Amino acid sequence: MRSRRFRGRSGFMTAEYVMVLAAALTLLPVCAAGIRISAELLTFTEEVQDEVALAQLRNIMLTAYDIEFSEREISFVYQNRRMTLRQTNDHLILQPGTQIFFSAVDEVRFTLNDGLIFAVFERGNRTYEKALCQA
């Protein structure tokens, strides 16, 4: 037998749950769209990292002197130390040390064009050509 306290309120909990469920289902598409957009914005892209690395490398090359380059490497003096920029495995590395500038590259070569040294690197099926410094 039902208690006197709940008499007359038999459908109250069910109606309340239905309203909450309807509100949640109404907000579900909005939340899903927001999550989809934020997931695309938070994915890592090598292009952004490449621009940061290029800015750092250009700052180093601005103060470097005695620059010598071939198709496979650039050698220069930076802070009174002879440094070499070359591809090792799938990274463009500044040595001595292991300061990595580009990662996941298939091939890196250096070219001279209009008095500027360019780094030409391939990643996947895309080719990038970026100016590094004056020759």
Question: What is the structure about, briefly put?
Answer:
Helices cover 36% and strands 39% of the residues. It is α+β, with helices and mostly antiparallel strands and 135 residues long.
Describe the structure.
The protein has 135 residues and is an alpha+beta fold. The protein has two domains: 11-41; 46-134, no CATH class. It has two helices and eight strands, in the order ααββββββββ. The strands form two sheets. The protein has a five-stranded antiparallel sheet with strand order 1-2-3-4-5, covered by helices on one side. The longest helix is centred in the N-terminal third of the chain and has 30 residues, at 12-41. The model has no long low-confidence stretch (mean pLDDT 84).
Number of E strands: 8
How are the strands of the biggest sheet laid out side by side?
Answer: 1-2-3-4-5
* Global shape: rod-shaped
How far do the termini sit from each other?
95 Å
Q: List the uncertain runs.
A: none
Structural class designation: alpha+beta
Strand content: 35-45%
Mean pLDDT score:
84
Oligomer: single chain
Please tell me the total number of domains: 2
What integer value in Å does the Rg equal? Answer: 30 Å
Number of helices: 2
What is the H-and-E element order? Answer: HHEEEEEEEE
Summarize the main sheet: 5 strands, antiparallel
Helix content: 25-40%
